[in-house]
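SDR family oxidoreductase, pasting as requested.
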Amino acid sequence: MRVFLTGANGWIGSAVARELMTAGHSVVGLVRSGDRGDALRSAGGTVLIGGLGDLDVLRRGAAEADGIVHTAFGLDISRIGALAAEDAAAIETFGEVFAGSARPIIVTDGFLHLTGEKALETDRPGIWSAFPRASQQTAFTLAERGIHANVVRNPRSVHGMSEKHGFVPMLAAVARHKGLSAYVGEGSNLWPAVHRLDAARVYRLALERGARGEAYHAVAEEGVPFRAIAEAIGRQLGVPARSLAPAEAEAHFGPLAMWVVNNGPASNDWTRKTLGWSPAQVGIVADVERPGYSR
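Structure tokens follow.
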């Protein structure tokens, strides 16, 4: 299959590119500049230069593809509204190109289950979505129109060596600055997690086997106590780990506080059953404890 992959040089996208090519697919990766595509070229992929706002470029990449895997999304939280609108327009564009065909579109999103209940693959946006990002809403709308779109939801921690922009590096930066790796209360709130290589396999399987209008959870560990993650970061950095009172969380963690205290377990039962996926990589605690992870 010839696959058009957005975010091909990103943390998740680069792993997806390797997974797809290892499985025999060819990859055309969207990157913002030529030098950002060097790794993909070296691995045997093809590079298309452009951004998510370049709709003509997206149309060209999609028109020549047998399938699309969409992993790109901006990192500037201060522009979340504009980024969400750009993302939705890109997904709509893919849908326009693929309309009337059975070619699959795999869209990326996440989850923040504010109720503390376990997030299920059958959940749909509006039950727990708290941000302007409308990736999965747009994908499900395409599916209702008969377009073969489905969604891969990633947990808040997609971990792995050389991780630079995820929650673990951000938490490690706070711990390094404060000299303390903290958790709130007993730290028993649960975080779902997945290794990036296991997540990449979910994308490939969703592309190859996924059904129209379904959501799949790239979740290896359905819920890891946050205290265990904080303690692993502390051991890695050589700083103590201890509890904070809830009233201290915002002053210590800043904007991360809402994530630190959130209890958000997520199921992977349907994903395992329907895609035949099972995680094979190391869990988040063991990964974070590897020498050099948070240095």
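Note for the archive: Residues 108 and 152 are 5 Å apart (CA to CA).
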